[in-house]
Amino acid sequence: MDKENPRLQMPPPRIYVERTLALIKPDVHHQADEIEDLILRAGFTVLQKRKLHLSPEQCMDFYADQYGKPGFPSLIAFMSSDQITALDLARDQAVAHLNSLIGPANSTEAKETHPESLRAIYGTSDLRNAVHGSESFSAAQREIRFMFPGTILEPIPSGSAAMDYLGRAVNPTLLKGLTELCKTKPADPITWLADWLTDNNPNQPRVQHPSNE
Fold it and tell me: pTM of the predicted model, to two decimals?
């Protein structure tokens, strides 16, 4: 018996889009557009953007998990000292990629170990380190809701739930489109299929025009 192709036994790759929060801090608020551009070049999409000046009370709520630490008062005074820019960001593995992009919390350390990171380039100390990034997926959800009240963060389907959704909502229409593609044999199959899926999307609203009778 022939051995099965090992490639056929491998599960299909999964790419999940995550969201995370970045804050461009008061020490570099005048360079916010420049830093945002670097974040975009790293593959992120900005879903929401907001410039604001937090009060000390708002900063205390945002950094509640650091309450009682030695540097807490200085952190609150610094973060409430001037304007910040909040960015709701999305990409695959957004939390990990953003933390890699911004580098270690201490800018002095970042300049030595991660010289191309945002904190190495723009930060000057452990406190004035230019950029904040959510440390985990759960922290990102909390922080996005804090900076953008009313934001709805839908859960990402996985496992059997994802397979059920694809089988119910995606595969039937996609199969019809691929069948028509094989029959039509267009010169540009990708564009043709994209147009077909747009025209035959079962979830788009159907407008019924009144008859002329």
Answer: 0.67
